[in-house]
Amino acid sequence: MFPAMFSLDAHASKEDAVACYKTAIKEPLTFYGNRGDIFILYDGSKWKVVSGAQYEYIPFRYRDVIICPIIEKLMIGDKTLSVLQLDK
Predict the structure, then answer these.
(1) How much is the CA Rg of the chain, to the nearest whole Å?
(2) In a structure prediction context, what are the per-residue pLDDT tens digits for the chain, which is 88 residues long?
């Protein structure tokens, strides 16, 4: 179950439902998760970190993540970063 920050208004339509899915960071090979960092997921989508703690170093090339495009959140382990999709 997601933390409370991932809940939606009870009146949200099915089209507005939170759709999170598992993928992995394809580029860059070393992802730090700093504000302003740009990354590409294996689904081909391009994203920018808009807020997060400094140096959330992710040392694995194929690090699994959960992306929630509608609420613009990226989850890596126990870390959650706010992101913005660049290729909508």
Answers:
(1) 13
(2) 344 444 444 444 555 556 899 999 999 888 888 889 999 999 899 999 998 655 555 655 557 899 999 999 999 888 889 999 998 6
Among the listed residues 83, 80, 85, 84, the one whose alpha carbon sits nearest the alpha carbon of residue 4: 80
Q: Which residues of 58-79 are buried (b: 16+ CB within 10 A; e: fewer)?
A: beeeeeebebbbeeebbbbeee
Bridge partners, residue 81, by sequence: 74
- The verdict on residue 6 lying in a domain is no
Residue 76 lies in a domain: yes
Q: How many domains does the chain have?
A: 1
Alpha-carbon distance of 16 to 32, in angstroms, equals 30
Range of the structural domain that residue 63 is part of: 19-85
C-alpha 60: how far from its chain's center? 16
